[in-house]
Write a structure and sequence with these properties.
Shape: globular
Number of strands: 20
Structural class: mainly beta
Distance between the termini: 64 Å
Strand order of the largest sheet: 2-1-20-19
Number of helices: 5
CATH architecture of the largest domain: 7 Propeller
Low-confidence stretches: 1-10, 15-25, 278-312
Order of helices and strands: EEEEEEHEEEEEEEEEEEEEEHHHH
Number of domains: 2
Length: 312
């Protein structure tokens, strides 16, 4: 059985189906990759952004949505056997069977890895990965709001784009030395946070604001460098997901360490803050029946107020 672990301030276990879904087949020529949706910045990879002018007498540009799946452009890309894809806010990564990486879409912050911040309307190979430096077969990919992650031979995690809240962006894949030598199983990017499943550990870092790093109420809120999630140290983490304001980890069970993790509960003060309102409702109910005590009366409920108005 598998559990998912949600991280706001503390982990919360959630049961998952006992049998995992079958792994999807490679996206080869018999099962070609296609895309549909909003084409701005060339994120569909078809060679155009479908921009047009909506006014005859002035300039007002718009982008024509593509509701039907369309194949990507470029013979060099379509001839490859694609084995993994990842979509970010406005860019796409694709890994082929030979260990090459391709990217297209919005090039802000250097998320495409081409050493420049410019859009690509068709798949373009990321030159960093080639020769002896290739992606690990079946390598996990992650495309976030302003960054990208991939795992190269070694194994070695590579990151590029806007990796920190301040400082320059990296416009090409660079080694993340803090995770050198780790057996990286899965990676994910959020708007400004990152999560990794590696060996018997769960790791997270980034510009967090809502406890996404899973360090607990008294722990770090943000971290520029990767840090272990203490509650899952020693657990076999299979997969991660970094969302907007939260992070999730899929952990293999039975696992004594994961199952013994402390469950998050609302602070006692938050529960007590709701008590006066509930007590006021109860006091009002008692007064209406003639058996209430002499305590301070609360404001009448909607029904009580309406009944009183009707008597007048």
């Amino acid at each position: 059985m598998f559990w998912t672990w949600f991280f706001g301030a503390r982990p919360t276990p959630t049961p998952t189906p006992p049998s995992p879904l079958p792994f999807p087949p490679p996206l080869n020529n018999r099962n070609p990759q296609k895309s549909a949706g909003h084409p701005e910045n060339g994120r569909l990879g078809t060679g155009t952004d479908y921009m047009y002018n909506t006014k005859d007498s002035s300039i007002k540009l718009a982008y024509r949505p593509q509701p039907r799946p369309l194949p990507p452009a470029g013979e060099a890309f379509t001839a490859r056997t694609i084995v993994a894809v990842a979509a970010g806010a406005a860019h796409v990564l694709a890994a082929d069977a030979e260990g090459w990486l391709w990217s297209w879409g919005c090039g802000n912050y250097g998320v495409l890895g081409h050493k420049v911040q410019q859009d690509e309307k068709a798949p373009r190979r990321v030159e960093t990965f080639g020769g002896r430096l290739l992606l690990v077969p079946g390598s996990p990919l992650a495309a976030g709001g302003t960054s990208s992650l991939a795992v190269g031979v070694g194994p070695q995690l590579y990151a590029w784009g806007r990796l920190k809240a301040s400082g320059d962006c990296s416009t090409y894949p660079a080694q993340l030395s803090d995770l050198s030598g780790w057996n990286i199983r899965h990676v994910s990017c959020g708007p400004g946070t990152f999560a990794v499943a590696a060996d018997n550990a769960a790791i997270a870092w980034g510009a967090a604001m809502h406890g996404e790093l899973g360090q607990g109420p008294a722990g770090k809120k943000s971290s520029a460098n990767p840090v272990k999630v203490d509650a899952l140290d020693g657990a076999h983490c299979l997969q991660t997901a970094a969302g907007v304001g939260f992070t999730m980890f899929l952990v293999r069970t039975p696992d004594a360490r994961a199952e013994a993790a402390e469950l998050w509960a609302p602070p006692a003060g938050a529960v007590e803050a709701e008590a006066p309102a509930a007590a006021a409702d109860e006091g009002e109910g008692g007064g209406a029946g003639g058996g209430g005590g002499g305590g301070k009366r609360g404001r009448p409920s909607g029904k009580a107020a309406a009944a009183k108005k009707g008597k007048k």
